[in-house]
């Protein structure tokens, strides 16, 4: 399973690359586990000064693996490895840079709200279709998105499920740069190298000040998890999943 998440260090930059292109990098529990370990190791390493989150060409991540997601719906909650990843992402002390080419759905979008610098290909699409499944936002996005985008844009994306193009995501403040799809990895790595070359102490303090109280973020993640668990058992979610499964047959 480790080949579905590739972890590589180059100088002071660690790259964590999703590598399940046949499923558009849909995330499974083993993938979450590898990412959590890679984030935790980087957090504890003085040698790593920046982390790049990347995907395969054409897809950053299609979100949670649908098979596991349906099992979670039946069991009534998010899997522990998913929760561990969200906590590790929120509390990671190293600058996070994302290289987003193509599709970013669900957690593929909401994880970007924890990133400090996001490079998107002009072909990128950002979508959070939670409410269409009778569910709610996750990964702390109900707190972070309004802070980043403002209430109006956050409601349209998270509650109404309206997707954003790369240009719209940049205008909304989710994305820093929009580049040619072939240049996404290169530009993101250059940004990470630029950050890694700066005095690490100054960057760490600046980042803590900019990000604010992480206990609030983690508390919101945990609140979302509890409400998400309740919504999974709702009549609305059951009807949405039944409709989805009927379309798959």
Q: How much of the residues is beta strand, in percent?
A: 15-25%
Query: Which CATH architecture is right?
Result: Alpha-Beta Complex
User: Uncertain regions: pLDDT < 50 for 5+ in a row?
Assistant: none
Strand order of the largest sheet: 1-2-3-5-7-10
Key words describing this protein structure:
2-enoyl-CoA Hydratase, Chain A, domain 1, 11 helices, four-stranded mixed β-sheet, 249 residues, six-stranded mixed β-sheet, alpha/beta, globular
Concise structural overview:
The protein has helices at about 30-45, 65-75, 80-90, 105-110, 140-150, 150-160, 165-170, 185-195, 200-210, 215-230, 235-249; strands at about 5-10, 15-20, 50-55, 60, 95-100, 105, 115-120, 125, 165, 175-180. The chain is α/β, with parallel strands linked by helices and about 250 residues long.
How would you describe the overall organization of this protein?
The chain is an alpha/beta fold and 249 residues long. The protein has one domain (2-181): 2-enoyl-CoA Hydratase, Chain A, domain 1 (Alpha-Beta Complex), CATH 3.90.226.10. Helix content is 50%, strand content 16%. It is built from eleven helices and ten strands. The chain has helices at 29-43, 66-75, 80-91, 107-110, 141-149, 151-159, 166-172, 184-196, 200-211, 214-232, 235-248, and strands at residues 5-10, 13-18, 50-54, 59-61, 96-100, 103-105, 117-121, 125-127, 164-165, 177-179. A six-stranded mixed sheet has the order 1-2-3-5-7-10, sandwiched between helices. A four-stranded mixed sheet has the order 4-6-8-9. Helix 1 runs parallel beside helix 3 (80-91), helix 5 crosses helix 6 and helix 5 (141-149) packs across helix 10. The longest helix has 19 residues, at 214-232. The chain is globular and about 55 Å long. The two termini are 28 Å apart. The relative contact order is 0.14. The mean pLDDT is 92.
């Amino acid at each position: 399973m480790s080949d579905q998440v590739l972890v590589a260090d180059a100088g002071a930059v660690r790259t964590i690359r999703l590598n399940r292109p046949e499923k558009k990098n849909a995330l499974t529990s083993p993938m979450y586990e590898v990412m959590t370990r890679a984030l935790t190791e980087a957090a504890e390493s003085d040698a790593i000064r920046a982390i790049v989150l990347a995907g395969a060409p054409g897809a950053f991540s299609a979100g949670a693996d649908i098979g596991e997601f349906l099992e979670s719906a039946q069991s009534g909650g998010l899997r522990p490895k998913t929760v561990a990843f969200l906590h590790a992402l929120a509390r990671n002390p190293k600058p996070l840079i994302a290289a987003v080419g193509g599709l970013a759905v669900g957690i593929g979008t909401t994880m970007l709200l924890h990133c400090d610098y996001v490079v998107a290909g002009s072909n990128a699409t950002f979508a959070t279709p939670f409410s269409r499944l009778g569910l709610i936002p996750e990964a702390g996005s109900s707190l972070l998105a309004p802070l980043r985008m403002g209430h109006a844009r956050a409601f349209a994306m998270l509650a109404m499920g309206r997707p954003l193009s790369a240009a719209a995501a940049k205008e909304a403040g989710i994305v820093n740069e929009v580049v040619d799809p072939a240049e996404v990895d290169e530009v993101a790595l250059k940004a990470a190298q630029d950050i890694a070359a700066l005095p690490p102490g100054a960057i760490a303090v600046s980042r803590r000040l900019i990000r604010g109280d992480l206990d609030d973020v983690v508390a919101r993640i945990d609140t979302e998890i509890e409400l998400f668990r309740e919504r999974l058992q709702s009549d609305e979610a059951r009807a949405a999943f039944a409709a989805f499964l009927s379309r798959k047959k």
